[in-house]
């Protein structure tokens, strides 16, 4: 039974004609309100993931729950269908159960809060926000257990509940949630921060509505959605061919020694509609790398990607959703069946963007970016310090941005919006560790006419005994290059023990014991190169060599010869470039850095120091429908 | 007799403001600027203003100056070739920065990062290590360092920065490196991060110190030149430069720490606005400075501007205190356009700049700008000569705006009004950042507009925000010079001191604050401020343990002595609640302690303008067809210089003066006060929003 919206006013919102300038004004006001939500949250939250790194997503939606400003597609309609209770003024809903909201959030660390906005007894809009809590309990500190087989091992999950009922906090529910977390005061502060951000958005919407009238506000939001739909229809017509495009990419392993897992997607256009079909994607994993991908969320990813590549001026919102259809077969890695574990979905989430780039680029090679989305590599480090106090670090790091048609990829930067690193001096002041290296890795960016960004090397010297967890990927497959660009370097983690021994660590691992004095060298991936490296201006290559971002040997991959004085050897460069072009032949659209999975696995041990993963055994869900083949 | 002189150098005019320190009597002058060597215009102006005052230049003993030299050096990328010394493992600290990519999801696709101000090629690593608690865990390898510095010598660096990890906790290695670098790189200015900004966060500390090095040689040359030129006419004069935080720095400290001058120019405007408004009886203010490409806004509470702990110029953000001025890319030159796919009307952030400038300037511009919209709407009459001699061309302006109108399928005037309304909305966005977002209600503030184009938009902005009156001071350039002249010499010292309350006590905190105050006072005394004239304020930055924010709380040593650290935490809880709607029951953590010291300001006796009756008819110089609020109106045009105190100018009206034009909208009126300010109010003393009208009326009544 769908939720019942309680309104004291019976007056319905009317669609009225609004002049274009007023719409533009309301659009800027809503955009400002959405950024104000960020500001409030960043300043008051405590989880470094939210506060310093900005792992959070706000939005404002219209009365039907369609997102008008924000960055995650609206799930409100779905929520309303599934929620049996009432919606009243002053209510705030909270959930962190992905299965209850069709994957609008995709693991239990994300606490999602949702608030209806009322004015004069009528519902006029919605606002929502979610943020990644450092810990929500479960079997491992940080609540992202690689080896979980069910969601019940991943911490406390709460279905949609009214955490504020008509303005009154439901203290008992909050108490239960906090009681299950390792750092309850962080969760409490983050919870308060999200609530404050929602109230801010509410106040702004009410002000706009007061200023222009409810009907104008309502109609302007409708028109903003329509505007976006018109723009996206144009964009889809121009950029998505009717013939089927197919692309596949991989998650290297599942943290249980099996892999790689394939994500496959086809894209084509039928009339004005763009269709994405994930048929051919591997079945769901036994471990926690499953990604419950909400179809609407995927539309948003696809839409944003198209807008950024083709026309960044377009305001992004939900208006175009009926122009896309997304088909995800149930029981696959992207639509696992409850109670499949979900916590480590970050790898598949990141990989979706590489898939999108690969799909959209085939029809428009001149706009094609290389691959870069390893995902968000995480490090967790926890234990008791010498005073007996519990410390728990959760850190997201970054890598090389892909080379793109518009320029080089920055080195050691974030692909995720608004994320930032945590100052190392801050880490050293609050956690028992010392960051001995924080630099990018020369030559790790894929060579190209536009270079991929270099990956990041962080040297963590641990000062107390404790346990670490690592979450990363692209250690086996490469971030691919495009249009002649070469792949970026893979990620790698090495533990140098105090006793002098050296151990390569797997890319996904929990409960690794470390001693005071041990050093972890964590290398992330480099971005793929974009365009023919033999066409890169030798002066740019020399600039990178002088800067120490590319080595002299590395310059040769661009066909550029730097002599002992550090100058470009023009003659030798010309010769080398001619020779390399002949040997290589015409450039290919994609360079994945391997011929087949078998070939890749055959050289895995010698190249990475780690045994190749074995062919995955797929989980069998208890319910009837399953697997991609059925779809 | 002693005089102090405020000098503002603008793009077109140099304004001077001379004050008799004893009597408070003032004199002003306006002369053309001389961009090739600004000191020429300044000297010219000094001669002029002294002539007016009937004094000899020797009578001037303080010159106060706001400058945009540091800002322009950053904006135009013309600073020094900078070397940088980091700790081993951190050579790429500026390359990686905070790993932030602007632009939202997928923003990386179009993001091209600008190059660091210290090239990687000129960045070297020192083998050394200090722990977060200040302990030295690896001694400095001096032999290697010398080799590397010698390499920098060959690379011909012009300035050097030393920024080591955790140097905020122990400065020994940075200081030792300065000694060694002084031997190897003689004559190269060296900036230490532990001196420029001794605070935690390696990227912010490094980028700030590098910015300091980057602008330093050019600023030093500029100041030295100006100083020597001024000294040629007026001996024994002390030159002070306005800092971004609205205080004054002595010439020496300005040359050493020019990173504190990045907002020097705009800070002068805010300081002047503050003074003018205070005289007119409005201590709570929103300031709006509309220039050609951007608009600067700030909030003033109880006569004091809000400060923030960072300064942003272009895409560089540094950790240096500045008046909390927010800038939006919305000014007279902002270009209006209609994107093909959405058919929406957008204004800015692209700007026609000075060249070609708005279409109406007739210098080849064809894109519709905000100025063109103002011309089409009749707000900028053709009889107005911008800056005294520029002729506006309404035909060219109409042609440019017509393109926008056609794309929107709107009549010309409605398109022009649309551009005017949208740019106002963008300015309101910035005003909200400094008011609503910080928990201040704009309806409790008056709005003061300056800059060439500010008075064109002031009435409309005040109406959108409910901020009455809209104050239009006479002469926007003089405002900055006035701000410079009336500012007190100011300095501050701070120290990162991360302690939870349980790890420290009131005695320790007081003793550190006292030390900081002593150090800061010494610097003022060095600049010639007498000890007895110095007043000190103390601030503590703190947060709940685990938070990333820090709120700055003002405290006094007496409060701490009486109530202990509780005095600090209570104020913090209240502020946290005001800003974010909640307070927490968690331990408080101090982050930074700070002492700010300042010398005495000055009192002015400003001659009022002549009084007259309420009818301003004598000032009418013509009529103008205007399009306001969707109606065509025949509008009287007034000459500002002819207005008398007591005049009430009824809207619609246009008021012209040499360097600005004021629009008064229908159903509003402007009261001319005795200082020549125009105070614009709505005719019905209520806000246009009926729900708030009672409160606003009460407030308005209180102000009258």
Concise summary:
The complex is a heterodimer of chains A (631) and B (704). Chain A has helices at residues 20-44, 48-51, 76-82, 171-179, 184-212, 214-239, 295-310, 346-363, 424-430, 538-547, 552-555, 570-584, 597-602, 604-608; strands spanning 4-5, 56-61, 67-70, 86-87, 92-95, 110-119, 122-132, 161-165, 168-169, 245-251, 261-270, 273-277, 324-327, 378-384, 390-396, 433-440, 456-462, 466-471, 481-482, 492-496, 502-505, 508-514, 519-523, 590-591. Chain A is an alpha+beta fold.
Kindly describe this structure:
The complex is a heterodimer of chains A (631) and B (704). Chain A has helices at 20-44, 48-51, 76-82, 171-179, 184-212, 214-239, 295-310, 346-363, 424-430, 538-547, 552-555, 570-584, 597-602, 604-608, and strands at 4-5, 56-61, 67-70, 86-87, 92-95, 110-119, 122-132, 161-165, 168-169, 245-251, 261-270, 273-277, 324-327, 378-384, 390-396, 433-440, 456-462, 466-471, 481-482, 492-496, 502-505, 508-514, 519-523, 590-591. With 631 residues, chain A is α+β, with helices and mostly antiparallel strands. Among the domains of chain A are: 4-232, no CATH class; 370-532, no CATH class. Chain A has a seven-stranded antiparallel beta sheet with strand order 3-2-7-6-5-8-9. Chain A starts with a strand and ends in a 23-residue tail after the last helix. The relative contact order of chain A is 0.11. The model of chain A is unreliable at 624-631 (pLDDT under 50). Chain B has 704 residues and is α+β, with helices and mostly antiparallel strands. Among the domains of chain B are: 75-220, Rossmann fold; 490-598, Dna Ligase, domain 1 (2-Layer Sandwich), CATH 3.30.1490. In chain B, the strands form nine sheets. In chain B, strands 13, 14, 15, 20, 23, 24, 31, 34 and 35 form a nine-stranded mixed beta sheet that branches. Chain B has a six-stranded mixed beta sheet with strand order 3-2-1-4-11-12. A four-stranded parallel beta sheet of chain B has the order 6-5-9-10, with helices on both faces. In chain B, helix 2 crosses helix 7 and helix 9 (264-280) packs across helix 14. The longest helix of chain B has 32 residues, at 202-233. The interface between A and B is large, with 92 and 72 residues.
